[in-house]
Amino acid sequence: MTPEWKELKNFLGGTFHQDITSPEEALEDYIESVDKDWIQTIMDITNSFLESNLTEEEKNKFIQTYAEIYFPAVGRKPVEWLEDVAIRFKKSLSDRDKGNKVIR
Q1: Is there a domain that residue 9 lies in?
Q2: Where is the CdiI immunity protein domain (predicted)?
Q3: C-alpha to C-alpha distance for 23 and 9, rounded to whole angstroms
Q4: CA distance linking residue 23 with residue 93, whole number of Å
Q5: Structural domain includes residue 104
């Protein structure tokens, strides 16, 4: 596991654990609690992982191992869900650049 992917593992495990209300709420809480530079960093790491040469099955397994999310209830495959997370990171950066408060 690369050092960057250890950061992704820490993000997934530390944010999406058994005590969350919902994955969406946990993500928004995370975005509100970290600074813009870290959002950029974790977004870059996430995109690097998604664009890596791992198979989709390997990516899904990695995400499922560290994010305590029941993906059938979310209605998305783990990789699709993580792609949505990356998009949300990008939107939050755009909102901050415009001076907008992070909106849920």
Answers
A1: yes
A2: 4-88
A3: 15
A4: 19
A5: no
Tokens 């040469």 correspond to what residue? 53
Place of tokens 């191992």: 65
pLDDT tens profile 2-61: 888 899 999 999 999 888 889 999 999 999 999 999 999 999 999 999 999 999 999 999
Place of tokens 């909106």: 103
Question: Could you tell me if residue 96 is left (phi over 0), alpha (psi between -120 and 50 degrees) or otherwise beta?
Answer: alpha
Instruction: Write the pLDDT tens digit of every residue in 70-90.
Output: 998 889 999 999 999 999 999
State how many domains the chain has: 1
Q: Is the pLDDT of residue 102 over 70?
A: no
Q: Residue 32 domain-assigned?
A: yes
